[in-house]
Write a structure and sequence with these properties.
Helix content is 71%, strand content 0%. By secondary structure, it is mainly α.
């Protein structure tokens, strides 16, 4: 019974983070969780950063996760790369930085990951890097889809 109460409490805290409209409040809620914060809590905060268009803060969050031995998930990476693909200042460079760091945690990119990174490079005017990504998909065992060619 005690374990169910703790799980319910953690899930409630995670939902509260997701529902935040203020970044400062989301960070405070995450910090308040202390050692109970897990990948779901960090991904919830990541969602808030993406929604509030704060890519620099999101990179800091991923760094914090790494420092406390919480491995970022595929969702974490895809959300951040998606945000960078919208931001003209970062686009290709930061998307590729995240893409290349996935291997550090054994996170395998999926077709969505490639689509986001290819789109970021194309929007950033770096078509050569976009083409390199497209050609590397087979090395990861990922098949391009219709969206890949539209990226």
């Amino acid at each position: 019974l005690e374990s169910n109460v703790i799980t319910t409490s953690i899930n409630s805290q995670i939902q509260a983070i997701k529902d935040c409209t203020d970044l400062k409040e989301a960070i405070e809620l995450l910090d308040d969780m202390g050692s109970d914060a897990n990948i779901a809590a960090y991904d919830a905060a990541n969602t808030v950063y993406s929604r509030e268009k704060q890519p620099e803060a999101a990179i800091a969050l991923i760094t914090k996760m790494k420092n406390i031995d919480i491995a970022p998930s595929l969702f974490t990476y895809n959300e951040q790369m998606r945000e960078f693909s919208k931001d003209g200042r970062w686009q290709c460079e930061k998307a590729l930085e995240l893409f290349n760091s996935m291997n550090d945690y054994g996170v395998k990119p999926d077709v969505d990951t490639f689509n986001i990174a290819i789109s970021a490079c194309a929007k950033g005017g770096q078509w050569e890097k976009a083409l390199e990504l497209l050609n590397s998909m087979k090395d990861f065992g990922v098949k391009p889809g219709v969206d890949t060619f539209n990226a």
